[in-house]
Amino acid sequence: SLDTILDSLGKQLVPPDFHQASSGSSLFGSQHSDEEAEDAIGPSPQPQRSPTLTLRDQRTARREKELRDRKRWKTLRDFVDERGIEDELDAIESDRNDLDIVLGTTDSYPENLMDTVSGIEKSLPGKAALPPINAIINSQAQASTHMANHLESLASHYEQMAGAMRESEAGEAFSQDDLQDMNRDTEELPSIMAELEEGIRSIESSHEQLSSGKTALSQHLELLPDTLRDLDELGEIMAEMLQCQESVEADADEHITTLHQRLVTLEDLHQRFVAFQMSFDKLLVEMARRRQYREAAEKIVEGMMVQLETMAEEERLVRVRFNADQGAHLPVDICLCIENPPTRWEVLPWNGEVMEELPDIDYDLIVEARERVAGVEDVVPGNESL
């Protein structure tokens, strides 16, 4: 994460020579002072000593204390523009708050819908206590059938009595059996009438039950238009909610796209910081390599100067002996250069260039940098190790 790489940058020390102006040329292009330039290119007071070593001794005392006190050193994080990171994080937080506000406009929709639906359910009429219509109809059918049978019996009895009356008026005498049958039928009339009256009462009771059920259903039907009106209003509300929700989704998508772009920016910053840290590690390794090259070149120069000085001294002694042995026998105006000493040589930077000055880097920092660089190059195939 970004915090992790920033913490890592905050732990990696930067030697002071990498960012402070120094007497010599530095990594960031500081130049020599006039006095030191003269020391670098002028005649050496000690031909046996390297000019580079002389310059190094001059600045060592001045920087020794500072180099030991690492608590005062800067870190890689000091070279990072954290203000830009904070601005980007503030922008992300602002966009996130705006997204929360947009999404919050529909937070109450589910609760409002539930409350509205619950109110409609409560406004519905309770379940009507309807009579058992099928049982009542079956009972009426049975009663009607039973009454119809009784009425048929009464009609048959009436026809028999009417026929008997006509026969009696005609002077025909009835037998004892006929009289008994007529008397028996007459005696059954009260019970038949009672059953008919009972059937009538049963039918009237069923009629009252059905009428009561009809009244209850009518009352329920009177309440249903209000419920339908509430449902229509709920449908309109839901349509408005759906339209608003679609608008919220569109706005949320825009905010999410913006947030994604900002996250991509942070990821790019993370990659840049990782590359910055790796490049600095490679810079430390490169400075160590250059120092190794410079020291090797200095050794060659020092060896050449010692060899040239030795050769010059040997040549001087040879010339002194020659002049001592042969000078008295030669005219003074012959070969005037015979008295000249041998040429003394001094190896100096080419074309008057300023000697390269490299930043001082502690060995442990170089070792750590090499380990980090080697670790990354082991993971990425194809890279060559330093």
From TrEMBL:
Annotated Gene Ontology cellular components are: Atg1/ULK1 kinase complex; phagophore assembly site membrane
Protein origin, superkingdom: Eukaryota
InterPro entries noted in UniProt = Atg17, ATG17-like_dom
> Which UniProt keyword terms apply here?
Autophagy, Cytoplasm, Membrane
Q: Where is the protein found, in the record's own terms?
A: Cytoplasm; Preautophagosomal structure membrane
Q: How does it sit in the membrane?
A: Peripheral membrane protein
Single GO MF descriptor:
molecular adaptor activity
State where it is primarily located.
cytoplasm
Q: Which PANTHER family does this chain map to? A: AUTOPHAGY-RELATED PROTEIN 17
Name of the molecule in the record: Autophagy-related protein 17
